Automatic annotation (TrEMBL):
Function of the protein: This protein may play a role in the biosynthesis of the prosthetic group of nitrogenase (FeMo cofactor).
UniProt protein name: Nitrogenase iron-molybdenum cofactor biosynthesis protein NifN
Family: Belongs to the NifD/NifK/NifE/NifN family.
Highest taxon, organism lineage: Bacteria
Residue span, Nitrogenase/oxidoreductase component domain: 19-429
Gene name in the database record: nifN
Pfam family of the protein (one): Oxidored_nitro
Any one GO molecular function term: nitrogenase activity
GO biological-process terms attached to the record: protein-containing complex assembly
Species assigned in the record: Rhizobium chutanense
Signal peptide start and end residues: none
Length: 451
């Protein structure tokens, strides 16, 4: 069983994790005509906005209540009301997703009460706009907790409760934050190929997919899950959750509407993709389509071609818990060894199933210390300095990735994504392999050639 070591340092050295409010904002960005609203200072919002813009290379409609020193001391309910009404008048969103920050959470304000008063007093002005609150203090958790809390808040506030008539072909899908835009697009195509109708929440593949929304500027998200479909999640015949952090949203949906759920901790790797595809075939009553069988055969060939490059390689990984499980199981399944594993929080249940001897809750400074002698570093763009100092190649995954283009369009899941990962990693190993010198082959020669 993996031994988890807690964080003991009083300061982070080259931070690994992103905050809860950022994760919640990213989830709200997966809803059509939505605007995430940070309840806190302008600085809290600016940092998240910069990271999101640099990662996706898109305009991000992230707003703030812009608390100043006086509002921070006396209470920010006035700023919250003013921000909500301004957004309603100017952007006319279908959803305003409020993400609290450490500034207001530390003060201990009654956010739910303040929001209830605003909705009651301004009901006419806010008609047609859902306002959802997610409590996401920066001082605890990380991006995956924030994402899950935002989904929970949307199900609690928007989804119609109670047992409803089910559409047998309708499937609710709750993807984890670590699935890329390309992963979610492939997920939808795969589900639809079985004759099923997926409703994905959140769906960043419709809002952060790099398309141009037309000849005018749009002040909200221009794609994603429609609010009407969130309301009708209870009419789905089945819910599929991807990632351990999506267990609570799936359980909440089941409690409120009776929709059963199945949890898939990862969709990367042959066995895990097989389980998902078999499940779709079972609930749809349809055979596996020929195009999916072909993708599986391509993955089998990639496994044969690529496993020579993975055997005995030492991998150092630093990402969020569910993404750590996704990549750790992928590498060990290919014959590599997890030499160092670092993550952002020690509360996730998935950590107990990690295929590693030990796991450190920490930062990229911890990764740099543990990764000495590794063959590959796996983390986001902030790990590039550690990779340079150690002389180890870096594979960029997670968030943020700002020094490479197209990270959101990289596949990491199902047959196609696993195949692409095999090729990407194998090519990194081949590009960084060193030819042996005569001395390393025969130490007695000490590197000298005979005369």
């Amino acid at each position: 069983m993996v031994q988890v070591f807690p964080q003991t340092k009083s300061a982070a050295v080259n931070p690994l994790k992103s905050s809860q409010p950022l994760g919640a904002a990213l989830a709200f960005l997966g809803v059509e005509r939505a605007v995430p609203l940070f309840h806190g200072s302008q600085g809290c919002t600016s940092l998240a906005l910069v990271l999101l813009v640099r990662h996706f290379k898109e305009a991000i409609p992230l707003q703030t209540t812009a608390l100043d020193a006086v509002a921070t001391i006396l209470g920010g309910a006035g700023n919250l009301e003013e921000a909500i009404l301004n957004l309603k008048r100017r952007a006319k969103p279908k959803l305003i997703g409020i993400c609290t920050t450490a500034l207001v959470e530390t003060r201990g304000e009654d956010f739910a009460g303040d929001l209830a008063n605003i909705k009651r007093d301004r009901a006419d002005e806010l008609a047609g706009t859902e306002v959802v609150l997610a409590n996401t203090p920066d001082f605890e958790g990380a991006i995956e907790e924030g994402w899950a809390k935002a989904v929970i808040s949307m199900v609690e506030r928007i989804t119609t409760p109670g047992e409803q008539s089910r559409h047998q072909k309708k499937i609710a899908i709750l993807p984890g934050w670590h699935l890329t835009v390309a992963d979610i697009e492939l997920l939808r195509e795969t589900v639809e190929s079985f004759g099923l109708k997926p409703v994905i929440l959140p769906d960043i593949s419709g809002s952060l997919d790099g398309t141009v929304p037309g000849d005018r500027w749009v002040p909200t998200t221009y794609g994603g899950t429609p609010v009407d479909e969130i309301q009708e999640l209870g009419t789905a015949a089945q819910c599929i959750a991807i990632g351990e952090h999506m267990r609570r949203p799936a359980e909440l949906l089941r409690t409120r509407t009776g929709v059963p759920y199945a949890l898939f901790q990862s969709l990367t790797g042959l066995k895990r993709a097989d389980r998902f595809v078999s499940f779709l075939s079972e609930i749809s009553g349809a055979p596996v389509p020929a195009n999916i069988r072909r993708r599986r055969a391509q993955l089998q060939d990639a496994l044969l071609d690529g496993h020579f490059h993975f055997g005995g390689k030492k991998i150092a990984i630093a990402v969020e818990p569910d993404q750590l499980y996704q990549f750790a199981t992928f590498f060990t399944g290919m014959g590599a060894e997890i030499a160092a594993a670092v993550t952002t929080t020690g509360t996730s249940k998935i950590l107990a199933e990690m295929p590693a001897e030990s796991l450190q809750v920490g930062d990229l400074g911890d990764l740099e210390e543990l990764a000495v002698g590794a063959d590959l570093l796996v983390t986001h763009s902030h790990g590039r300095q550690a990779a340079e100092r150690l002389g180890i190649p870096l594979m960029r995954v997670g968030f943020p990735i700002y020094d490479r283009l197209g990270s959101q369009h990289k596949l990491t899941s199902l047959y196609q994504g696993t195949r692409d990962l095999i090729f990407d990693v194998s090519n990194i190993f081949q590009a960084n392999q060193r030819a042996p010198c005569p001395g390393s082959l025969d130490p007695s020669r000490k590197g000298e050639l005979p005369r």
